[in-house]
């Protein structure tokens, strides 16, 4: 309780607290109260790097197949709304290499998604040219799954490609791609500054991780909602969503060990296949690194 000293006229605060069943009394003046503060996680400083504009480089036929249920940006917007997420990205569709290069000159893009289409679009060669002038823009290959496509990817130089995903007709994959790239952009700063936790997902099959990642992200978002309820208001709830665990994808033993060694003190869990590539060779027991 607060009371006013009749002699000095200063306000004071009385505190009662218990130590081992014995109650004690302490008096604190206004100046002492100023030294008390609550230290909370600075959620506003998390997820500073976001994807706002995406360049979608695809043939008109692939773009039509991609938008058979509606516009791509509308699909991704609906996914963001359903999961209480903010800042949905905008898509810019280009159908030729000339249009893609011109778009990169006119606007800043945080992500490029390219869909190879026969001989008309060769994103692997074009990606190398883009990386020369824009080395910080992640480039993702999105392609329908088939044996022919798998053989082509196996023989291509993927040095300029950040990720390859298999399009399975599910718009949730677009959300997973965006969040995976954003997690990679923010994980180092968020872990070092606040101690955000990390989930390591190890899988070398393009088709499998393209199918699993959307479900994994949805599960993490749903679980994060329970954490949001601890906030005092709607604004705090949205900020606390930034503190969700980051998901890191590793496609071989070397990537997995690099990620684990860097973030092992903040590792929430590891989801891994048993057999994947190690030193360029398929190792049926590579998943034993978790031991």
Which key terms come to mind for this protein?
five-stranded parallel sheet, Rossmann fold, single chain, about 290 residues, 2 domains, alpha/beta, three-stranded antiparallel sheet, 13 strands
- The dominant shape is globular
Q: Rg to the nearest angstrom? A: 25 Å
How would you classify the helix and strand content by structural class? Answer: alpha/beta
Question: What's the rounded overall pLDDT mean?
Answer: 78
Question: Which spans have pLDDT < 50 for at least 5 consecutive residues?
Answer: 1-26, 33-39
Order of helices and strands: EEEHEHHEHEHEHEHEHHEHEEE
Multimeric status of the protein = single chain
What is the CATH homology-level superfamily of the largest domain?
Response regulator
Q: Output the CATH topology of the largest domain.
A: Rossmann fold
Can you count the beta strands? Answer: 13
CATH class of the largest domain: Alpha Beta
- The number of distinct helices, counting runs of at least 4 residues, comes to 10
Instruction: Please list the strands of the largest sheet in the order they lie side by side.
Output: 5-4-6-7-8
Percentage of β-strand residues: 15-25%
| Share in helix | 25-40%
CATH architecture of the largest domain: 3-Layer(aba) Sandwich
Write down the domain tally: 2
Q: How far from one another are the termini?
A: 56 Å
Outline the biggest β-sheet.
5 strands, parallel
